[in-house]
């Protein structure tokens, strides 16, 4: 596996300072020219991990939360989510996985989540993601439920929420963070040999086959997904603004699948190719109220 992970920004405990920004990441690239066999004998203990034969992950760090400020006079906000570099995986050999939730190839780039804005602090924007590229050659075989042949995803980070607090009076105007834009996703027959450091293996001609045997196991999943806009939480105040503004979702990038391989799926609910470009949803605004309130 190859991973590039940005550090999370620290929250602000000073009313005059922002939450720290999440760390950006470089690209993560993996190439296989041999034989890879991975078997999982027990279920994963949580949903945070990613398992597969070849795995490339690039994820920006999350932004830190803003200070709890009642009167935001200097634009205090949460930290911006870190930008994620590209994720690239190239298979020229043979990949076989056994076990549920075990994809053949996983390549994901995801921007970090924007830091929340507390009370009158602003939620921060989610990080952008760069491109995801998977070169499909050789053979890929998966044997398990929810075990796709190829998973290629670019996802923008979610915007930070605006967390209002109830109190006596609040006449400030705060807002949540916007979702980050997602990059281009491409699945094709490209290979990672372009110089003497990465030569093509002897007899290489390209092409190959993807075969999945379990239910809910697509041949290829390619998705570009814009980050969700941050929500704004309502509050109860005696005088002033009882709620603040939510924000927009991020844009999705183009998705292209042109892989020179045969694709066979044997399980139920298992498409050959699933390609999607999905814009991020806008944030919600919570209910607020008070004796004399404006929203």
Q: What can be said about this structure in brief?
A:
The protein has 295 residues and is mainly β. The protein has strands at residues 2-5, 28-32, 35-39, 52-59, 87-91, 94-98, 103-110, 117-118, 132-136, 138-143, 150-155, 162-163, 167-170, 185-188, 208-212, 220-225, 232-233, 237-241, 255-258, 261-265, 273-278, 292-294.
N-C termini distance: 49 Å
Rg (C-alpha, Å): 22 Å
Q: What order do the strands of the largest sheet run in, or round the barrel if closed?
A: 1-4-7-11-16-21
β-strand number: 22
In helices, the fraction of residues equals under 10%
**Element string (H = helix, E = strand):** EEEEEEEEEEEEEEEEEEEEEE
Q: Low-confidence parts, pLDDT < 50 over ≥5 residues?
A: none
Give the integer mean of the pLDDT values: 82
H/I helix tally: 0
- Global geometry: elongated
Largest sheet: 6 strands, parallel
Summing up helix and strand content along with how strands pair, one would put the structural category as: mainly beta
Range of strand content: 35-45%
Topology:
Layout (H helix, E strand, L loop, with lengths): L1 E4 L22 E5 L2 E5 L12 E8 L27 E5 L2 E5 L4 E8 L6 E2 L13 E5 L1 E6 L6 E6 L6 E2 L3 E4 L14 E4 L19 E5 L7 E6 L6 E2 L3 E5 L13 E4 L2 E5 L7 E6 L13 E3 L1
Parallel strand pairs: 1-4, 2-5, 3-6, 4-7, 5-9, 6-10, 7-11, 8-12, 9-14, 10-15, 11-16, 12-17, 13-18, 14-19, 15-20, 16-21, 18-22
